[in-house]
Structures are given as C-alpha cells and as structure tokens.
From TrEMBL:
This is Cytochrome P450 monooxygenase CYP4L47. SUPFAM superfamilies: Cytochrome P450 (SSF48264). It comes from Ostrinia furnacalis (Asian corn borer). Its main location: endoplasmic reticulum. One of its GO terms (cellular component) is endoplasmic reticulum membrane. The keyword Endoplasmic reticulum applies.
C-alpha cells in the first residue's frame, strides 16, 4: 500500500513539475530544448568547465542565437544575439545582476560590481572621477615599475622551456592593483607565498567552483563543507588587510587635517592614494561613506582589477606566440617611440601613440574576452529585438561566442589585429568591457596596464609558440585548464 502511495505521489510531482514547465515555456517566444520534469535541462549543462562554452554555442546555434533553458524550474535565456545583447546592456533599468554573483558577495559585499538600485547608482556616479585620466596618470609609474620586475622574472625563465605565463602575470597584476587602488604594495611578485596572495587565490577558486557546480552552490550545502572554513580564513585575511589600509590612510588624512576633497576633486586627487582618498573624503547624499562600504568598494576593485587584466595579458601573449609578424610590428612601433632607449618609461601620451598595440589588444580580447559571460535579472516583462523576456528570467549573455560568430567577423577564429584598422564596426559586436550603464568602469585603467606590460615584454623577448592550445573554461573569468604556455627568447 505504502509503495502505491509513494508511486502515485511521485507521478503527481512529476506531472505537476512537467505541467508547470510547459506553462512557463509559453511565456517566452525564445525556443529551447524540451525540459524534463524536476531537472529541467540541467543535464545538458552538467558538463566539465571546458565543455561549458561549447554547449552554450551548440544551444545558441540550434535555436537561432538565443535559447531558453531550465535549471530545475529556474528559467534562463542564453544569448549571443548582438541585437538582444545591445537592447539589454543599453537599457537604463535592466541593471540587476544574476544569481551567480552571490558567490562573490562574502568577499565583495555590495560593492559596485554586485550592488543594485540606488546604492549602485550613487556609487557609480561618485567613483567615475577616480578613473579620469588625471588620476590614471598617477598609476603609470606603478605599472612601469612592476612591468620591469615581471621582465626580470621572465628573463630567468627564458631558457627554451615552456612557461605557463598566467600565474606569473597574475602576481604582477596583483601588485599593480593593490598599489594603485590601496596605495600600498603587497609585493606579490617578490613574495608569492604571502598569505594575502594565497587568500586571493582561495577566494577566486571557491567562488568559481560554486558558480560551476550547482551541488555545492546553495549556502545550506556549502556551509557544511570544508570549503566554508577555507573561505572564512581567506576572508579574514583579505578583509583585515583592507581595513588596516583604510584605517592607516584615515589616520594620515586626520593628521594632515584633510577633511574634504577640495573644490576640484579630479585635480585634488593627484597622489598615490587617489582612489582611497576619494572613498574616504567624498560624500554621497551629503554623508561620508561608512567604513564597511569603503571596504566593499576597495575589495571590489581589487578583485575586478586583477584576474581580468591577468587573463587579458596572458591570452594576448599566447596570441603573439603564434604570430611573429604581429610581434615585429609591435616591436617596430616601440622602436619608433623609444629609439634605442628601451629602459625609459613611457609617458602617458606615448601610450596613446601605441596604436598598433591597441589593435592587438582589441583582437586578443575579441578571441579571449577575460569576462566571457555576464548575467542579468529581468525584473519586469519586456520585449527586446523581438524576444519576449518574462519577469524572473536570468539572462546569460555570452560575449565569448558572440565575438567568435562568423556572421560578425570574417574567419572569426583567425587572430588578425588589422581587422579593427579602418573599419567602422557596430560597437556592440565587441563587448570585452561590456557596454551601457554597467560597463567596465576600469577599462582605461586596464588598457593602460596592458599596454605598459606588453610593451615591456615585446621590447625584451621574442615569444615563441609551445604548440599547446589553451583548454578554455568559463569561470569568473576565462580560464585555461592546461595553463597558457609559451616559450621566451631574450632579444
Ligand atoms: C582586461 C581587463 C578587464 C576586462 C576585460 C573587464 C571586463 C568587465 C566586464 C565585462 C564588466 C561587466 C560585468 C558585468 O556586467 O557583470 C566589468 C565590470 C566592472 N569592472 Fe572590469 N574589466 C577589466 C578590468 C577592470 C579593472 C582593471 C577594474 C578596476 C581597477 C575593473 C573594475 C570593474 C568594476 C568595478 C565593474 C563593475 C561596474 C558596474 O557594475 O558598475 N575592471 N568589467
């Protein structure tokens, strides 16, 4: 008897789940695979991280650019359709991020990347001046100094053996971002075993793992696993370091009797603590920021500004390894700027003269966008470019596959910097830094750092191919499971 009741209950649950999915599917005109009761289409996405981007592509192609899929009963729309992506990114009210951003909240709280509504709007407005070129110029000597340390580390490895450049560049990028955002150095390149460096790695790894693995994602499960203790330990290190830096700078400002930014915030911030000073001294809605809000913003910029530029640089070095001709063109451009004095640091305006390097960076970020996917929550029924998007949908916006679409780019898998030369393309076909109100606030910072670092590398080394393609996976950033390997030869 009990068996019969269990069986009937099971059938009823399956039937209800199926009916509810079928009813839900009618809310959107974006087609997708038929979901199964209970699991939806979860089985299609339960793949290795290196398969994930391929599965997305297959679904997008099969269903005409965008596909609706269900993870259990949750509705997702995957899209690589540039018209739909443009409509979402330029909207002034579809600004909420997706569920997966929750996994970095223990570290970043409600900083600029993860916040929404009025908090995001107010902070975006007051943080924008921090990326004015007046302030960015403060960071140039930092990037140059760390670029030279990187060069020396690479010189020691330029012995004909393959080098996985990702972890080496990551330490340089960490030094760049801590010195410019916090105003202090953690010397990651010299002390890669430091507990701060390790804690950054642990947090990035845990957040990525939760994004990929739906079984460890929910808090109720995650909190029972040993990862939780690792996360707590890493957070303790990261948050206390940030708080220490904030308190020290607050004390310095107090001792110098500086209490506000002065009449011209951009000019008044010409010092190496520019970013922190803005957070400590600016007022939002007539009030100074709380210590916790400052901490969240500093951590957000530390996080967003380190792995992203690392990936951007490492994949660019990889692309160059397969294209000697492109390296030589960059080298010629460098010679035209520096003459024979390769030891000299570039000026801000010389960075602008590196026009060909700009094209190279743009093309490598097209093929290997550091942030391959982003999410958006649709919080009202909306029709965009002929797609009916019901309230409650999570959009998965697939920059990676869009930027490799043969309808947008001729021979899309070829690395050809000149394709960006004189052609006026639709700007929404290249979205490495996203677009619209929630685009990357650090874009100019990143491009400046990338140019300084690549200039240092190409001036000093020939980059040779190792012959192993990166096995790409989408985590928080575009990762390669087998590293990013090249061979270096000193020039
Ligand atoms: C090659 C390097 C970089 C790439 C490709 C990149 C890409 C992106 C993308 C695609 C977004 C949109 C994310 C989303 O909508 O969820 C974003 C947002 C953001 N980026 Fe970057 N980024 C880079 C470097 C940086 C740097 C160096 C910083 C800071 C120093 C930074 C700070 C931020 C912040 C704070 C946001 C959130 C903006 C908001 O929501 O208002 N990024 N970035």
């Amino acid at each position: 008897m009990i068996l019969i009741i269990v069986f009937v209950a099971l059938i009823a649950v399956l039937l209800l789940s199926w009916l509810s999915l079928m009813w839900d599917k009618r809310l959107t005109n974006v087609k997708g695979p038929t979901p199964f009761p209970i699991i939806g289409s979860g089985h299609l996405l339960a793949v290795d991280s290196t398969e994930f981007l391929k599965v997305l592509k297959r679904l997008e192609v099969e269903y005409g650019g965008s596909a609706t899929i269900y993870l259990s009963s949750m509705r997702y729309i995957l899209t690589a359709n540039p018209k739909l992506i443009e409509g979402i990114l330029t909207s002034t009210d579809l600004l909420a991020k997706g569920y997966s951003y929750n996994f970095i909240k223990p570290w970043l709280g409600n900083g600029l990347l993860t916040s929404e509504g009025s908090r995001w709007k107010a902070h975006r407005k007051f943080l924008t001046p921090a990326f004015h070129f007046n302030i960015l110029q403060n960071f140039l000597p930092i990037f140059c100094k760390n670029g030279k340390v990187l060069r020396e580390k690479l010189r020691n490895l330029a012995n004909g053996s393959p080098i996985n450049v990702f972890p080496i560049i990551a330490l340089a990028a960490l030094d760049n971002v801590t010195e410019s955002i916090m105003g202090v150095s953690v010397n990651a390149q010299e002390d890669s075993e430091s507990e701060f460096v390790k804690a950054v790695e642990v947090m990035s790894r845990i957040a990525s793992m939760r994004m990929r693995n739906p079984f460890v994602a929910p808090d109720v499960v995650f909190n029972l696993l040993p990862y939780k203790a690792d996360q707590d330990k890493a957070l303790d290190i990261l948050h206390s370091q940030t708080r220490k830096v904030i308190n020290a700078r607050r004390e310095e400002l107090k001792n110098s009797e500086i209490t506000d930014l002065g009449a011209d915030a951009e000019i008044g911030l010409k010092n190496k603590h520019a970013f922190l000073d803005l957070l400590l001294l600016a007022e939002v809605d007539g009030k100074k920021l709380s210590d916790e809000h400052i901490r969240e913003e500093v951590d957000t910029f530390m996080f967003e500004g380190h792995d992203t530029t690392t990936a951007g640089l490492a994949y660019c070095v990889y692309c160059l390894s397969n294209h000697e001709d492109v390296q030589e063109k960059i080298f010629d451009e460098q010679k035209a700027i520096f003459g024979d004095d390769f030891e000299r640091n570039p000026t801000y305006s010389e960075l602008h003269q590196m026009k060909y390097l700009d094209l190279v960076i743009k093309e490598s970020l097209r093929l290997f966008p550091s942030v391959p996917l982003i999410g958006r929550e649709i919080d009202r029924d909306v029709d965009i470019a002929g797609h009916r998007l019901p309230k409650g949908t999570t959009m998965v916006i697939d920059f990676f596959n869009m930027q490799r679409n043969a309808e947008l780019y001729e021979d899309p898998l070829e690395f050809r910097p000149d394709r960006f030369g004189n052609i006026n393309r639709n700007p929404f076909f290249w979205l490495a830094f996203s677009a619209g109100p929630r685009n990357c606030i650090g874009q100019k910072f990143a491009l400046m750092e990338m140019k300084v670092t690549l200039s240092e590398i190409v001036k000093n080394f020939k980059i040779l191919p190792y012959g192993e393609e990166p096995e790409l996976g989408a985590d928080l950033i575009l990762r390669s499971r087998n590293g990013i390997k090249v061979i270096l030869e000193t020039r």
